[in-house]
């Protein structure tokens, strides 16, 4: 008797759940809840190019910015530090191509395909 009661109770819960799904689907009237993107939104006016910096050491592959505004560049065989005003601070030649650059505190992390270089921000 106990198994029949549990089975009946489970069946009632499942049928109630299915009924709720059908009710919910039928009351939406086919409206999508996805956000609509307005086609007349223009972002081009919001962005302007302030300055351009050309890297002379080789092909650039990564960029990182420290909290104090210094810009660190990594590329073919170099890591370079540039001030916020785009003045060169220092350049460090590397044996391999730098694939990514990150900054944490006073340490610059420059990764190659096989290694990670830890560079002091006071280098040079």
Provide the residue-averaged pLDDT: 84
In terms of per-residue confidence, which ranges show pLDDT below 50 for 5 or more consecutive residues? none
Strand order of the largest sheet: 1-2-3-4
- The structural class is alpha+beta
Shape: elongated
Textual characterization of the structure:
- The chain is built from 1 helix and 7 strands.
- The chain is an alpha+beta fold and 124 residues long.
- The chain has a 4-stranded antiparallel β-sheet, with no helix packed on it. A 3-stranded antiparallel β-sheet has the order 5-6-7, with no helix packed on it.
- The relative contact order is 0.11.
Task: Summarize the SSE layout with pairings.
Elements: H1 2-27, E1 60-65, E2 71-75, E3 78-82, E4 88-93, E5 100-104, E6 107-111, E7 116-120
Antiparallel strand pairs: 1-2, 2-3, 3-4, 5-6, 6-7
